[in-house]
Write a structure and sequence with these properties.
about 130 residues, mainly alpha, 2 domains, 5 helices
């Protein structure tokens, strides 16, 4: 876990700005520091660790929100797909989205199972 206390106030302000802005230049400007200083901060292990932790937290939050909305999105797609009054293009598009998502999910589940199996084998070999 990154030690945010090890960062100075300018570094912390820059990290907050970096998570909220698309580029290092924009984040540096928002944090009130020079772009060269920003790049120098990013080369420091403590700043890198803190940035990784913040990004992981943001991604975790977004992932939880996305997962909570997936059921509703699937309901909408299935509703369009089954709606005989909807135009054919919309129905085909919805059906394609459902199929594509299902196939990707199946691939991810298979990959996760294979990775878990490989990790278990590696642990066995290490013993």
């Amino acid at each position: 876990m990154a030690d945010f206390g090890a960062l100075n106030p300018r570094q912390r302000r820059f990290l907050v700005a970096l998570v909220a802005n698309a580029t290092v230049r924009d984040a540096a400007q928002a944090a009130g520091i020079g772009e060269r200083t920003a790049w120098r901060y990013l080369a420091e292990p403590s700043v890198k660790a803190a940035l990784t932790e913040r990004q992981d937290a943001v991604l975790g939050h977004v992932s939880r929100r996305l997962a909570s909305e997936m059921g509703a999105a699937l309901d909408v797609l299935c509703g369009i797909m089954r709606n005989t009054a909807a135009n054919d293009a919309a129905r085909v598009s919805a059906a394609r989205a459902v199929l594509d998502s299902g196939l990707r999910l199946a691939e991810l589940v298979t990959l996760a199972e294979r990775v878990a199996e490989l990790e278990a084998r590696m642990e066995e070999e290490e013993r």
